[in-house]
Amino acid sequence: MNHLLRQLAPISDAGWKLLDDEARERLQGSLAARRLVDFDGPKGWEQSATNLGRTETIDSPAADGVSAAQRRVLPLVELRAEFSVSLAELRDNDRGAVDADLERLDEAVQRIAIAENVAVFHGWDEAGITGIADASPVKARPLGDSAEGYPRAVAHAVEALREVGIEGPYGLALGPDEYTRVIETAEHGGYPLFDHLAKILAGPIVWAPGLKGAVVLSLRGGDFLFESGQDLAIGYSHHDAEAVHLYLEESFSFVVATPEAAAPLSP
Over 60: is that where the pLDDT of 106 sits? Predict the structure, then answer.
């Protein structure tokens, strides 16, 4: 038995498969940051900190002539999003129903995915995490009110990265509003804007709930480091006569190794 306590839940193997499959399917599209940065792990629930490879000087405990330094680490943070599922729905699934109501699981997936994306792109001061957009020394260029101006803004961002020696391919993370504008827009002659942007980047364009505006970043590797301890998993809290109370949980750290490898675009 591990810390998720799944064995204590009144859920059949078929019920757990339903929940895991639903969560996995929903998370694939929402975890935008993971599709653009280096992912290391999962290293397990016991993983507590990321080695930063640096030290800071501290006072020696006793004798003169002895220097001391302490290793610097970044503690992993834990995120949890709670939800519940009707026991009646789980029993119907065991009977062969194919339309189980998992709305609360879907809501929890969105909450935890947004929290992770915000931490990676915009930072999390309390956790010691600096976000990609905030770390970048490149001044944020406005996307503009019209999607027709997006190619120019993205091209300028790519050029800004190339000017400081950051090679591609490049990826583009778009906030929900910006992504919607892109997929709904066709340029003069009917050419899809999405395809035009992909050609400029030579890399992927991802929908990133939680991101404000957009970020162009290099995909060459080694610039943005996401370390996973416990990868996203469903755990058991408790149950009553009507519902089983569960949660989605993960632990991770994030380090920007090369701030100049990204160019933010303001909404």
Answer: yes
**Closest by CA position to 108, among listed 78, 83, 79:** 83
Is the pLDDT at 183 greater than 80? The verdict is yes
Q: According to the model, what pLDDT value does residue 168 have?
A: 87
Tokens of 65: 């002539």
10 Å Cβ neighbour count for 82?
14
Q: Which pLDDT belongs to residue 190?
A: 59
Identify whether 169 is preceded by a cis peptide bond (ω within 30 of 0).
yes
- The conformational region for residue 198 under phi > 0 = left, psi -120 to 50 = alpha, else beta, is alpha
Alpha-carbon distance of 106 to 25, in angstroms, equals: 10
d(C-alpha 253, C-alpha 180), whole Å: 30
Strands 38-40 and 243-256: unpaired
Nearest CA-CA partner of 59 in 69, 47, 71, 49: 69
In the block, tokens 């160019």 appear at 263
pTM of the entire structure? Answer: 0.91
Say what the pLDDT of residue 1 is.
Answer: 66
List CB contacts of 89: < 8 A, sequence separation 6 or more.
Answer: 97, 100, 101, 102
Say if residues 205 and 181 touch (Cβ distance below 8 Å).
no
DSSP 89: H
Torsion of CA 11, 13, 19, 24, to 10 degrees: 150
Q: Which amino acid is at 142?
A: P
